[in-house]
Design goal:
Layout lengths: L2 H33 L1 H12 E6 L6 E2 L5 E13 L6 H19 L4 H14 L4 E8 L1 H7 L8 H4 L2 E10 L7 H4 L1 E2 L5 E2 H5 L1 H5 L3 E8 L2 E5 L12 E4 L3 H18 L3 E8 L5 E10 L2 E3 L19 H11 L8 E3 L4 E4 L2 E4 L8 E3 H6 L3 H12 L3 H10 L17 E2 L11 H6 L4 E2 L2 H12 L4 E2 L4 E6 L2 E5 L4 E3 L5 H16 L14 E11 L2 E14 L6 E8 L8 H4 L1 H14 L7 H4 L12 E3 H11 L3 E3 L6 E6 L4 E5 L15 H10 L3 E5 L5 E4 L12 E6 L1
Parallel strand pairs: 2-10, 28-30, 31-33
Antiparallel strand pairs: 1-8, 2-3, 3-4, 3-5, 6-7, 8-9, 10-21, 11-12, 11-26, 12-13, 14-17, 15-16, 18-19, 20-23, 21-22, 24-25, 25-26, 27-29, 29-30, 32-33
Helix pairs in contact: 3-4, 10-19, 11-13, 11-14, 11-17
Length: 699
């Protein structure tokens, strides 16, 4: 066989092999398209069509007056099916639509959007996302009127994909109390603790995978989501704002590490304010709930002396507030350690009442040794009786467990009793300490604090939370009378004299506890003030903690108590029920009548009647009067204002004088400083001249 025939043979064999494979491919295509066509179409459809969850709208969180504290707002991403619109509508509107998109988003040119949409239409793509930026509902309404888009989803092809975002109308206010929940279902605060109620139940809908994404298919099989329930809290927005501002100022002033404030209604246990601020590089923010959580569980210091004195009076009711204790020179040896008082050289011999008012560590320690020295278990039993050994079952997750030592513990030492009595070697969260003070204010009934009062679906209440009693009676009425008197004495005469108010009475206790670092007590402090007001008829209880303040004055009275005072003043000012009537608050001295010279008859009569001052109007026709003081009453005589005549304004306040002279078209020149008119340049009753100018002198 020559070379030519060999080459031809090889070519023919190769050709036949290629033809064979080509025929095999054609055959396989025919099998796939014709024989197995339905099978592969079904598989393709199954993989292209899928169910996707439709997320439920999360419920709202409300304050006590129905103000929204957290809500879900709808935002949208704009997608587009450019194949939907007919040619006439598309060609007529594409230029205007591209221009509007470019101007609205401001990121790409008009030509970019035109080419993007046209290329997708020519390629038959049924889904493109025009921009990843989310728009609000008002923007959505505006876009729905744009060219092409105005045809809607079915005729224009516009797709508004709904995305819900959590929004807090009051910004950072009560941020940690409101809390959060992330995609992994982890979180904090109300959002996390009540997630099962707020989240609702997701639905599902059918979606089709297409080039560039997916689009929903509404075929009637979709399951509608069940939207979440709303929760109504007990938080008072105004008091919350005051609490956070007062706390922030105190922390910033003292460069403290963190602080917390809790305010609660005495009778109901409703939390009206809960502020938590921690120090960061950028300032103070709500990054942890120190009021409830483990990081806020500390040795309470002297605020715990309330529990110790309650235990003392229960165990030894014969102890009176007037009994005396010798606290010595301010230094007292207990086993192998020394206990000291804040005052250099000590307080000497003082009463039980003064021990508490002055917060004498030595006085409390001696009382504990005398009465519980031989029965230390009894002291711990009383703490358990007060409910201090148990958590409160608070509605927010993450409540810290209280820590109380027992004589059976290996760490119980010879100084443990006296150390616990003044607030060391025990640990409580601020809310747990406040619950005890609230019990004293509530006539001995310890109740569970609550922060959520209702779970609702629209206007229908699904679940409500009522006051739950934890301890029916923490102590006897006799003990209550004693400790309430001591708490009032702290503010009247003791360590918290600086927050004494002329308008209402306060009962409370300061605290200053040394911090532990690396197993040793250091000269850093956790300062506090806990109490309630008005002391004679308690409405609110409150605790303030300022941790690790810097500076010279780092005691509870200097740092924490003023925050309490600012919040209490605000609460008192806006709560008319707490106000005593003027008649009850002011007892006039009938032998010394107030200095009043002239004024409006209505105003003067009203004031005198409110203050219980006898007054006798000599006329009821004149608006303005002069005052003639008698021995025990005030007589009001007419001071007429006549047209064209200079009025008599001597004795009137500047405001009243300006009002009268202005109505007479007189130009007034004011001299001097004071509240009342002493002299006037024009004689009263004279005719007003053309100059129409008068000078009045104040005194």
């Amino acid at each position: 066989m020559n070379i030519k025939k060999s080459i031809v043979l090889r070519v023919r064999v190769a050709f036949l092999v290629i033809c064979f494979f080509a025929c095999a491919i054609v055959y396989k295509i025919c099998v796939i398209q014709i024989t197995d066509g339905e099978k592969w179409k079904a598989i393709s459809k199954e993989r292209r069509i899928y169910y996707r969850p439709v997320f439920a709208t999360r419920g709202n969180i409300y304050s006590d007056n129905e103000s929204i504290m957290a809500t879900s707002l709808p935002f949208y991403r704009v997608a587009f099916d450019p194949t939907i619109a007919d040619a006439q509508a598309f060609n007529a509107g594409i230029d205007s639509l591209s221009m509007l998109l470019s101007r609205f988003y401001g990121d790409k040119s008009e030509d970019y959007y035109r080419r993007k949409i046209k290329n997708a239409r020519h390629a038959g793509r049924q889904y493109i996302r025009l921009n990843s930026r989310q728009i609000n509902y008002q923007d959505k309404k505006m876009m729905a009127k744009w060219p092409v888009f105005r045809g809607g989803k079915n005729k224009g092809g516009v797709i508004f994909e709904k995305v819900e975002k959590r929004f807090k109308p009051f910004g950072m206010l009560a941020e940690r109390t409101i809390g959060f929940i992330n995609e992994d279902k982890n979180g904090a605060g109300l959002e996390y603790s009540f997630n099962n109620n707020l989240a609702g139940t997701d639905g599902e809908a059918l979606f089709e995978r297409i080039a560039g994404g997916s689009k929903p298919i509404y075929d009637g099989t979709e399951v509608k989501p069940q939207h979440g329930y709303d929760i109504k809290t007990t938080i008072d927005i105004n008091l919350q704002d005051v609490a956070e501002n007062a706390l922030y100022k105190a922390l910033e002033k003292t460069d403290a590490d963190y602080g917390t404030v809790i305010m609660m209604e005495v009778k109901t246990g409703e939390i009206k304010a809960m502020a938590n601020l921690g120090k960061t590089k950028g300032g103070y923010i709500e990054d942890y709930n120190y009021a409830v959580g483990a990081q806020g569980r500390t040795e309470p210091g002297s605020t715990f002396k309330l529990a110790s004195m309650m235990a003392l009076f229960e165990y030894a009711p014969e102890v009176n507030l007037t009994d005396t204790i010798d606290t010595g020179d301010g230094r007292y040896r207990i086993k192998d350690t020394y206990m000291t008082d804040a005052k250099i050289n000590g307080y000497g011999k003082i009463t039980v009442q003064q021990v508490f008012e002055k917060s004498s560590n030595i006085g409390v320690a001696k009382l504990m040794e005398t009465h519980f020295g031989s029965n230390q278990q009894a002291y711990v039993d009383y703490l358990d009786k007060f409910g201090l050994g148990n958590t409160l079952g608070f509605q927010l997750d993450g409540e810290a467990r209280p820590f109380i030592k027992h004589p059976q513990d290996r760490t119980w030492y010879g100084t443990t009793l006296t150390s616990m009595a003044i607030g060391y070697e025990t640990k409580f969260s601020p809310l747990q300490i406040l619950a005890l003070y609230n019990a004293v204010a509530n006539n001995g009934t310890k109740i569970q604090p609550i922060i959520v009062k209702e779970i609702r679906k629209a206007d229908k209440v699904v679940q409500s939370f009522k006051t739950r009693v934890l301890v029916e009676k923490v102590c006897s009425d006799a003990t209550l009378k004693k400790v309430r008197g001591m708490l009032e004495g702290v503010v009247e005469n003791g360590t918290a004299r600086n927050i004494k108010s002329a308008d209402y009475t306060v009962a409370g206790k300061t605290g200053t506890a040394r911090k532990v670092k690396e197993g040793k007590y250091v000269r850093e402090y956790s300062t506090s003030f806990a109490g309630y007001f008005p002391a004679d008829n308690p409405k609110y209880s409150c605790i303030v903690i300022i941790d690790s303040p810097k500076g010279v004055n780092v005691y509870g009275s200097d740092v924490a108590a003023p925050v309490f005072k600012e919040l209490a003043d605000k609460a008192y000012a806006r709560d008319l029920e707490m106000h005593k009537s003027l008649r009850e608050r002011v007892t006039p001295n009938k032998e010394s009548l107030p200095l009043v010279k002239a004024g409006s008859l209505d105003d003067l009569s009203t004031i005198c009647n409110r203050l219980g001052i006898s007054n006798h109007p000599k006329t009821t026709d004149e608006e303005w009067v002069k005052v003639q003081p008698g021995r025990r009453s005030l007589d009001f005589v007419p001071n007429p204002v006549l047209d064209g005549k200079v009025p008599d304004v001597v004795g009137l306040t500047l405001r009243d004088a300006l009002f009268i002279l202005g109505n007479q078209n007189l130009k007034v020149n004011v001299q001097g400083v004071g509240k009342h008119v002493q002299k006037q340049s024009l004689e009263a009753g004279s005719t007003i001249s053309k100059i129409k100018q008068i000078t009045i002198v104040l005194s």
